[in-house]
Amino acid sequence: MLFVKIHSLTSNLMSKLAILLFGLLVLSTTNISAQQEAKDSLQTLIKQLRSTPNFSVKDTTHINLLNHLGRELRFFNTDSLLLLSQLALDYSKSSNYKKGESYALLGLGNYYSDQGNHTKSILYTKNALSMSIVSKDVALRLRAQNHLASEFAYTGDYAKSLIYYLEGIDVANENDDKFMLSIFNENVANLYASQNDFVQALEFYKKVKKINEDLGNESISAETMSNIASIYADTGELEHAMYNANTSIAIFEKTKKMEWLAYAYATKAKIYLKDNKFEWALYWYRQSEMLHKKIQDDRGEIEMLNGMSQAYLGLGNDAMSETYALNAYAISDRIKDMEGSKQCAKTLYQVNKNKEDYTEALKYHEIYQSLSDTLYRNENKKSLTMLKTKMEHEKQKVDLIKENTKQLDTQRAYVNVALGILIIFIIVTLLVFRSEKVQKKLNSELQKKQADLKINELELHEINRTKDKLFSIIGHDLRGPIAAFQGLLKLFKDGEIEQNEFMSFMPKLSNDIDHISFTLNNLLTWGQTQMNGAVTRAEVVALETVVKENIDLLSEVAKNKSIRLINHLEAKTLTWSDTNQIDIVIRNLISNAVKFTPENGMVTITAIEKKDLWQVSIRDTGIGMNQDTIEKIFSDNSTLTTYGTNNEKGTGLGLSLCKEMVEKNNGVIWVESLLRKGSTFHFTLPKAKNKYQRTA
């Protein structure tokens, strides 16, 4: 909080507010618009209120005006939004005015969102949402719900964003708030558009257009049309895009809605850009650029600057293209706009590739790929797909209810006719009885279908869990090295790098291929256990031999890091277990120990003989783990990927596979670890007894 002691700093705060209002009144004389008139009106009301006898800064009307003025200034003077929201929050707390406190918290959430501080923005907005639920302030709840959903979308967590949007839609429907219903549905459409599912996005926009027709507000309709224009531009339907863009521009120019007019100009420029008319694209981007000098809308400015960069790139002016792209990337990085950073990285990759600066090009290509993986991750796609399925199911339910209602209406008509004729009383009774029987049968069938649907859904979840884990590992641990290998080969094939440059990458490529081989081995083993079920074939196994073979296998990797591998297992350390499965366990544990041990370290393998079992321990002098990591590493659902002391990449699968293999052989596995001291992995296996040996 900016001001902690309210009473002792009241005069200082009032002087700051007076300076702010004076500055804003001066500003209003240079930028006349409908929005500016609204700000002028609010400033006048505040000034008049302060001049009244017995005025108090804790007056609820005064607090409400401060919050309202802060909202109006959001895209024109963001520092004023911070100051006004802090003042409103301090005054509200000192007077226990919960409504004013809630709206002030929401204002602070908006401020920190625009600054790219998503953690603080989410914190303030969640507090505002909680207070709105307690106070049953529906209007505030809907605004907070929408802002919170948007904030999660900015961080790339579309799944969580979708949850808050859907909750908002439910609340808006319950309270018949068509304005917020339009906004929520439009934002869900934008989520689909961000995943390039433009068909589903346009389906939601059809709903939004219908709601907007009921509202009859041309500004809201224009906002929707400008968004639709952007989607049509992405799908290549440029005539539809231009119609919607021009219509929205005409309305915004009339209503003087500056931030939306800037966006609409940029959208029109985007359409020309898609049509390769780069000069016209630059013309409309410059119109948007002039408006951005008068407003503070960083996210809109990112899209505008990157668009100008692409237009200059199309004209062959790489220097100007790079300048605008770097400016856009700097803003994106500052406010942590993942989507903006991704698009800027893509443009900068193209610019640096044209300049033949392949190091910079590769850097931005990796940034683009990493951000794409985050924004298009499985849980986001899965959440949106489940929403689509839910909507289809809801439509089927509505159709079924309509059909039932239609049948009931027909039956009631028969009953009404029969009531007038006493002679057919018996027939009417039979019809009613029959209708009830039909209704029960329909209800029974509906319940059965719902039960079947739930069973199918559970089976689908289980199948998806296995599939998602496989795809996650393939996407994170195999696709990256393979894509880098392909990219390097293409550069070499196209003659963009020389042979000596290509050979300098060989050590890294060798490590990547070793990692891919190791990952595939684990992946195929785990996939067999999940898909077909692995059969454990126990026999007498000499552990000292298995350990020696794996030390020989990993000796080259250890040698590169000057790590000593010490085998303390004595001869005839015999267990009753599956050789292949235990080989996988020992190989993964020794490989992990080498990976997380710094140079000149030591990895020691020992075995302690107990009554009916052997306890094998693999100790390293590595970096160790905290308690939170220890609790996660053996989880079946974990795909935790970690990096070794030389940046070696893990698979996110090895330890859960070790746990499964050890347990299949009637053993247990656990770990002891201290940060910066090292880790010791222990596991047990049954001893090979005489009866086992005879069976073998």
Annotation keywords:
696 residues, alpha+beta, 5-stranded mixed β-sheet, two-stranded antiparallel ribbon, 7 strands, 6% strand, globular, disordered N terminus, HisK_dim/P_dom, histidine kinase, two-component regulatory system
Tell me what you see in this structure.
This is histidine kinase. Keywords: Kinase, Membrane, Phosphoprotein, Transferase, Transmembrane, Transmembrane helix, Two-component regulatory system. One of its GO terms (molecular function) is kinase activity. Residues 473-689 form the Histidine kinase domain. The structure is a single chain. The chain has helices spanning 10-28, 34-50, 60-72, 78-95, 98-114, 118-135, 138-154, 158-174, 178-194, 198-215, 218-235, 238-255, 258-274, 278-292, 298-314, 318-335, 338-354, 358-375, 378-419, 425-493, 499-504, 506-531, 543-560, 579-595, 627-633, 654-664, 690-695, and strands spanning 539-542, 564-567, 574-577, 602-609, 613-620, 669-674, 678-686. The chain has 696 residues and is an alpha+beta fold. The strands form two sheets. Strands 2-4-5-7-6 form a five-stranded mixed sheet. Helix 9 (178-194) packs antiparallel against helix 10 (198-215) and helix 23 (543-560) packs parallel to helix 24. The longest helix is centred in the middle third of the chain and has 69 residues, at 425-493. The N and C termini lie far apart (74 Å).
